[in-house]
Amino acid sequence: MNKNIFDKVANLFNQNGYRLYMVGGATRDYLLERPILDYDFVSDATPDEMKKFLLDADFTFSRFGTVRIKVNGVKVDITTLRIESDYVDYRHPGKVIFTKSIKDDYVRRDFTINAIYMDEEYNIIDYCNGLNDLNSKIIRFIGDPDKRIKEDPLRILRAERFEKKLGFKIEDETFKAIERNRHLIDELNPLKIKAELEKMKNEF
């Protein structure tokens, strides 16, 4: 990983009184010593607060808490720590509430291995045994697997993509939930399915 990217953004947020954490695929791949293709950070700063010091950022999706910037020519997504209400369309939450707590934020994520947070000092914050699953090469949904899939059926394809990409095993309850809910893929936008399949294809 280009540590300079995380360090540079973290320093900027710290200088303005906010925290920044690396999470998702960025932390996962960093710990696996794999190339990082997507830089995903979270912060206790809201989009309105970020506007004060991220002057050239893309705020198109700020209503969902996500702001995009470029660092050293690399696109970086920064999302405000948040709580999500029930999903209304198999893809998006009905309501997003910003929070300061990682404990509130992690439960909305898909897999335990994607909910490992790393702070500015590269300390690990892990509320769902994601590091253990990472070391054991296990793909496991956070919480109720059926609920996670019904929130976003695209997670079925993501689980199978990670299984092949990382050489991990899908945990039994996660696998059973995937088979029970596979029909929900039909509810998705075909373009979303195509994009996920393209990712799977391009990674092998």
Count of runs of 4 or more consecutive helical residues: 9
- The low-confidence parts are none
Global geometry: globular
Cα-based radius of gyration, to the nearest Å: 17 Å
- Distance between the amino and carboxyl termini: 20 Å
Protein architecture, described:
It is built from 9 helices and 10 strands. It has 204 residues and is α/β, with parallel strands linked by helices. The chain is globular and about 45 Å long. The two termini are 20 Å apart. The model has no long low-confidence stretch (mean pLDDT 91).
Task: From the structure above, extract its key features.
204 residues, alpha/beta, 4-stranded mixed β-sheet, two-stranded antiparallel ribbon, 9 helices, 10 strands
Give a quick precis of the structure:
This protein is an alpha/beta fold.
How is this fold's topology laid out?
Layout: H1 3-15, E1 20-22, H2 25-31, E2 39-43, H3 47-50, E3 66-71, E4 74-80, E5 82-84, E6 96-98, H4 102-105, E7 117-118, E8 124-125, H5 130-136, E9 138-139, H6 145-151, H7 154-166, E10 169-170, H8 172-181, H9 190-202
Parallel strand pairs: 2-4, 9-10
Antiparallel strand pairs: 1-2, 3-4, 5-6, 7-8
